[in-house]
Amino acid sequence: MRGGERRRQLIQVAIRLFSQKGFRGTTTKEIALAAGITEGIIFRHFPTKDDLYVAILDYKASQSPVEKWLDELRQLATGRDDEALFRAVASRILTHHRKDEDFMRLMLYSALEGHDLARAFSEKQFAPLHDFLCDYIACRQREGDFRQMDASLAVRAFLAMPIHHGLMRWLLKFNPLKISDVEAAERFTQIFLAGLRHKARKARRVNGSFQKNKDS
User: What percent of the chain has pLDDT above 90?
Assistant: First the structure.
């Protein structure tokens, strides 16, 4: 194999083995055996096992560049399409869980073992999304369409729904809801926006009524 092809092969084999046994429980000898090569070839591309872990992070980040996705979300934000925006976020998370169980297991192993992969991936991929959603909610609050509350807490509450659902369904194989990813994303979005909008609309009606009475 050429250098780039070999690197990709080793990364893919490592993801599968790390997701089954964790970083500490997987040896470079096992990775080499699964890839059909010698350990020396691994070290030619990745001097240490940590370097291989970092390469996994970069590889996954390149598969789904967050900036490109945020550009798509910004278009929805410009049009103030709340439903489409949050539904797109929920759908993306659910699709990621469904299509990449190995990487989700790897992330959990990383967190349990105290390895930096989970934290580094979150800072690189999740933090920009979190900040974007916080800014959008704060903007909608200033416009009077969302109730006043901590935007960061609101974002965490929303993201928790698809993440929890994805983990329960695809990792733990527990799916009492029996709904598709599309339907799940729609319902999570409706629940979230209903909570954000209810008191905002009520407050607008009260303020409007007060202003009318005052002017009369």
Answer: 58
